[in-house]
Amino acid sequence: MPTITIDGRKIETQPGKTIIEAALENGIAIPHFCWHPALSVAGNCRMCLVRVGSYKKGADGTLERDAEGNPVVQWMPKLQIACATPVADGMVVDTVGEKTIAAQNAVMEFLLINHPLDCPICDEAGQCKLQEYAFKHSRGESRFVEEKVHKPKRVAWSDRIIFDGERCILCSRCIRFANEIAKQPVLTFVERNDHVTIELFEGTTFDSPYSMNVIELCPVGALTSADFRFKSRVWEMSFTPSVCPGCARGCNINIGVRDNQILRLEPRPNPHVNQYWMCDAGRLEQYRWVNSGRISGAAVRRNGALAPASFEEAFRAVADLLSTARGDAMMVLSGSITNEDGFVARECAAAFGIEHVAFVERNDPTFGDDFLRSSDRNANATGLRALGIPSTTWKELLQRMHERMPAVIYFIGADPFAEQDSSSWEELLGSGGAIIAQLSNHSQLEEIADVVLPAATYAEIEGTFTNCDGWVQYLQPAVETAETLRRINGMAQSRLDEFGAPNDRWTHGERRLCRPHWQLLTGVAGAAGHSIAYRSAAEVFAAIEDRVEAFRAMNYEALRQYRGIRLGRGNDPEPVGVVYRSHYMKPQSD
Amino acid sequence: MNVTTNTRAQRMTFWEKLYLPEIAKGLALTFKTMFKPKLTRQYPEERWEPLGSYRGRPVLVLEEDGERCVACGLCSRVCPALAIEVQAGETEREKERYPVKFEINMLRCIYCGLCEEVCPEEAIVMSKDYDIVFHSQEEAIFGKDKLLVPIARLQERLEFLRQYK
Ligand code: SF4
Ligand code: SF4
Ligand code: SF4
Ligand code: SF4
Ligand code: FES
After folding, report:
1. Residues of A in contact with B76 (CB under 8 A)
2. Chain A nearest-CA residue for B137
3. Which of the listed residues A35, A164, A169 should we mutate to test ligand 2's pocket, taking the one with most ligand atoms within 8 A of CB?
4. End-to-end distance of chain A based on CA atoms, in angstroms?
5. A260 strand-pairing partners
6. Which end of chain A has fewer CB within 10 Å, C or N?
7. Residue A283 C-alpha to ligand 3 middle, in angstroms?
8. Smallest CA–CA separation between B130 and chain A, in Å?
9. Long-range contacts of A368-376 (CB under 8 A, 24+ apart)
10. The model's pTM
11. By CA distance, what is A119's nearest residue in B?
12. What average pLDDT is seen over chain B?
């Protein structure tokens, strides 16, 4: 084991590591732009220059000491880049000394010579590595009076990514990402000297399903999202750690919210699951349906028309339907409801004597690939199976209903009309049997439903998803419902949320009257006199922990701390280690 | 019960109770003041024109090709009263970004001038307007229509900023 000394601190590390890696693992931050733990080392930004040396030894092999008895260091004549210099036993590194600071200052000055200082219109401002280092490692005043070099701005690399050549600091992170991770090598440097910029090869676009990751990867604001551009400044949003429900991978994300609207999703590093990335489809699709088309408030069919109803009335109506059906009912769950929802659904079905409880699999073979995207488009199929809930398909259900229509069909999160073959459903469901639609978004199903219960989405609830590899991951609310309050429910708050008064316009974002599935189910059970009394998702999870072997010894606190625990590994969770974050807003979110 | 009988009327002397000398004193003061130079003016017919250093309501600078503001949101961030709300949007112009919505809640604004100080574009400045009237909370929210002022009318302030900021 090589032992090195960084700024006087002795550090044990593994052979083959570079200085920057050894430092990061021990909580020492060395400024850098081009280095990224998931990419190859380019060593081209020179921001990570540090002074490296070793202790001088006398002819007899003992350490030479100066007059005060401190060992004398033999420094290398020039500074070395920490990202490409492997550690060696006895190495001494200085990251805060005069010479190192002078080098960092000089590199920053060079980088800023041709930088447009666009910050007021740059989406990166507030979480920009260049801004951060300009504060920390810069002389603050520009000595450059000549005309800056002009380069192409607002170049569309695809319909999702916009490139600004002037802001680019030529770190090559995006090029390496395209080559090594996205496996779509279409980017390259062109020109020389201060005219270097990045271009796409003739006739190509950078549109890999993972391309948008370069937006966060870019240490500056050279790459911006066409979808997000200028929607908000970063400091106006709150960021809540969450999990993407787009497929069974369950990529870790941060949800950016302002005025109770989700403005963007961005990947959150988790070495267990998605490393540093997420797919473009998840990023672009999995927030729109939370923002719009939502069902708010319960409704009950009276004299042929749906009429708004209180939760109590709706629960009563559902309970009556289920009680009179005497078990001749079917519970159709979505594969993207949480473990808590599934567990309470099972308990509720047992209380009403319903035998047919199954979740509908959503598979899309065209979606899956060998990286993150999974053909299994259910956020929680693994978890529901672990809870003993069988799976089914729409086709199977259709067939079963054709054979015999149950008296009541209770759709929980599952919407048959969201699938392609809706005509057969229309006919079938319209033909008899009571229908309960417990959904988050408006659907054709409401037109034939007898009771509509408004469900909360993944962004509004506390709960857990289990991904395709069995990682149980914790979700927390990012968006307020009509029944939750940011301030009192411990949700992430931006400055606007914190200080806005009720008459401020930025506090008027839509809040829907809806509840998590498990809570609606306890309401229904309660209305029929069955006591399934949970007051919080944590209580439901405690019951799961108690009764389902695979979840033994898990709790929300541990799930958060370990960034997910694998099914059956509650007693021996895998530590996540030091998680690298390239840049973030300060004060640090997540 | 705690009844106090030491009222002002009871404490007055005989002469004070008589009132007449007091009225005479008052009239004397009135006459004296009538012949002094006048300090008040016939507002609003006679308006006071402030100097460039005056901090009246904040306004947005309007140039020939549109507003200077790039909707960076710094004024909104720095505003201690949270009076400013900016929503940015993209334009085809060279500056890329412009305020789709720019609103100042004049009931919240405390005329501190920090927005003017922080603005990287010199796009928001304190004007000379001081008589701001509204009849409802909604009316107090000034949008771009009320905020944009042609640059020609703001020269004095811009000159002041150039010299002293
Ligand atoms: S990249 Fe960073 S420093 Fe450059 S304009 Fe954007 S925010 Fe400012
Ligand atoms: S666009 Fe960003 S990531 Fe790519 S080289 Fe430039 S600064 Fe680096
Ligand atoms: S791979 Fe799946 S979980 Fe990950 S971002 Fe894409 S859709 Fe979401
Ligand atoms: S600080 Fe200036 S440029 Fe930025 S939003 Fe305010 S007025 Fe516009
Ligand atoms: S981080 Fe080492 S040279 Fe860029």
Report:
1. 236
2. A503
3. A169
4. 33
5. none
6. N
7. 8
8. 23
9. A368/A247, A369/A209, A371/A181, A371/A210, A372/A210, A372/A249, A372/A251, A372/A274, A372/A277, A372/A278, A372/A279, A373/A209, A373/A247, A373/A249, A373/A279, A373/A281, A374/A247, A374/A248, A374/A249, A374/A468, A375/A247, A376/A247, A376/A248, A376/A468
10. 0.92
11. B72
12. 92
H or E stretch at A266: strand A261-267
What are residue B162's phi and psi, to 5 degrees?
A: -60, -35
Give the burial class of B69: count Cβ atoms within 10 A of its Cβ; 0-12 exposed, 13-18 middle, 19 or more buried. buried
Show the domains of chain A with their CATH numbers.
3-109 (3.10.20.740), 121-289 (3.30.70.20), 298-458 (3.40.50.740)
Residue B71 alpha carbon, nearest atom of ligand 4: 5
3-class state of residue B65 by DSSP: coil
Contacts of A503 in chain B (CB under 8 A): 137
* Side chain identity, residue B159: E
Nearest Cα to Cα of residue A33 among A197, A239, A176, A160: A176
Domains delineated in chain B: 58-164 (3.30.70.3270)
Report how far residue A167's alpha carbon sits from residue A170's, in angstroms, rounded to the nearest whole number.
Answer: 9
Question: Residues in chain A whose beta carbon is closer than 8 A to a beta carbon of chain B?
Answer: 119-121, 125, 153-154, 229-233, 235-236, 495-496, 499-500, 503-506
Q: Label residue B121 exposed, middle or buried (CB < 10 Å: 0-12, 13-18, 19+).
A: middle
Q: With an 8 Å Cβ cutoff, are A154 and B96 in contact?
A: yes
Q: Is the pLDDT of residue A587 over 70?
A: no
Per-residue pLDDT tens over the stretch A29-74: 999 999 999 999 999 999 999 999 999 888 888 888 888 888 899 9
Ligand 1 contacts CB of residue A476 (under 6 A): no
Nearest to A227 by CA among A236, A215, A241, A242: A215
**B72 vs chain A: nearest CA distance in angstroms?**
5
Nearest to A275 by CA among A530, A557, A38: A38
